[in-house]
Amino acid sequence: MSDILIIDDDPGFVKFLKNHVHQSFPGLSIATCLDPVCGLSQINPDLKLLLLDLEMPTIDGEKVLTYAVAKGVSKSRIIILSGRDADYLHRRFPMGSCLAVLNKHEVRQKAVLNMVLGALQEKYGNREQVF
């Protein structure tokens, strides 16, 4: 079972983010889904972090967020990612809707994601893995 699940239909961004997590936060395990429908089956309440792209075909990130919360994932463990500007994202997802809404192309927003990933690694990354 993975600590982090990324559901995003952009293969280049997913590859970048997955490599970044593996290199910078090696204590965290990560799973990815390019198809939001397939990603639904991997959502479970034990996820430490769920990263969702807002704009995806078939099911958008807001619907996946609603599904994840219904499956028992805490809103405080869900981050919405988008190419849209931060003001739009904050209007669409007011405080308390999820942990954060981040523009995936802004450097300052990536710093926030790194802060979250660092906190997760500190909390969960040094545990022994049981197979």
Automatic annotation (TrEMBL):
Its GO biological process annotations read:
phosphorelay signal transduction system
The record's SUPFAM superfamilies line, in alphabetical order, gives:
CheY-like
Which terms in the Gene Ontology molecular function aspect does this entry carry? kinase activity
Transmembrane regions = none
> Pfam families per the record?
Response_reg
InterPro entries per the record?
CheY-like_superfamily (IPR011006), Sig_transdc_resp-reg_receiver (IPR001789)
Residues recorded as bearing 4-aspartylphosphate in the entry: 53
**What are the Response regulatory domain coordinates in residue numbering?**
3-119
Q: Which UniProt keywords apply?
A: Kinase, Phosphoprotein, Transferase
Q: What is this protein called?
A: Histidine kinase
Organism annotation: Geoalkalibacter subterraneus
**Taxonomic lineage per UniProt?**
Bacteria, Pseudomonadati, Thermodesulfobacteriota, Desulfuromonadia, Desulfuromonadales
